[in-house]
Amino acid sequence: MRDKIKKTIMDYFYITIGIMLVASGIYYFLVPNDLAAGGVSGLAIVINHYIPTISVGLLMLTMNIILFIIAFILIGPSFGGRTIYASLGLSGAIWILERLFPIKEKVTGDLLLSVLFGILLTGIGMGIVFNRNASTGGTDIIAKMLNKFFHIDVGKALLMSDFSITLMAGLTFGKEVGMYALLAVIINGFLIDEVINGLNMAKQVTIISTKGDEIKKYIMEHLGRGLTIYNAKGAYTGEEKEVLMAVMSRKEFVRLREFIREIDHKAFITVSNVHEVLGEGFKELIGD
């Protein structure tokens, strides 16, 4: 029970960090340069151009609340607490930045730099949020509604909604800004995937060594990881060998490599990247 509470606290802690990164990218780089890079934030930037008295943060908060109400009515209560927190938290974070740390002048007037730094912050932030089994809501909800009522794939529906917003940006702010906004949408999608892969990546290590017992003990007692043992036979020598296989974090692998180097510099080790590990000792299979 205590471990579950601790995990939940850490999830919301990292979601909050992700939210603040996304909010900073949107408010300091995308909003000042009218880069409506999809999502509710992009739509809020377009609306703010026509109704400047209503802030982007307040527009996002209002639209997210409306979308959640519609989603609960039409789709059902299928949204977890993390998604509600992340979605409304992002809107609130931008609203707070507008009030406490308002923009006095653009960080940069260069559209390409604004796209790169804005998407770098938002992509990393959204990757962190998604990795903690949450979503920033917005057009994700629209995509789910299109999927339910018009049987359009969620991915295609999300692309349609984001493309529609970048099209509005082009019509509102000019085709050049619209093209940069579309570029931002494309880069953001790739960046989010890379961040998630990087956060979840582990090492699968295979070891053949004459010091197998010592290595097994080190992996289980010092690294706290389990391992699998295979019996193999060398094709050249015909000698029976014990093959150890374990999955661990990158940091743990560095420790293991140094340990093996000290006790058996002739050990044979192969290492491969594992993009995601689910189950005991890693990410749980259950959701929110």
Automatic annotation (TrEMBL):
InterPro entries: DUF2179, N-reg_PII/ATP_PRibTrfase_C, UPF0750_membrane, YitT. One of its GO terms (cellular component) is plasma membrane. It comes from Fonticella tunisiensis. The keyword Flavoprotein does not apply. It is found in: Cell membrane. Keywords: Cell membrane, Membrane, Transmembrane, Transmembrane helix. PANTHER family: UPF0750 MEMBRANE PROTEIN YITE, UPF0750 MEMBRANE PROTEIN YITT-RELATED. It comes from the Bacteria. The chain crosses the membrane at residues 12-30, 50-76, 83-101, 107-130, 150-171, 177-196. It is a multi-pass membrane protein. Gene3D superfamilies: 3.30.70.120. Signal peptide: none annotated. This is Uncharacterized membrane-anchored protein YitT (DUF2179 family). Residues 225-279 form the DUF2179 domain.
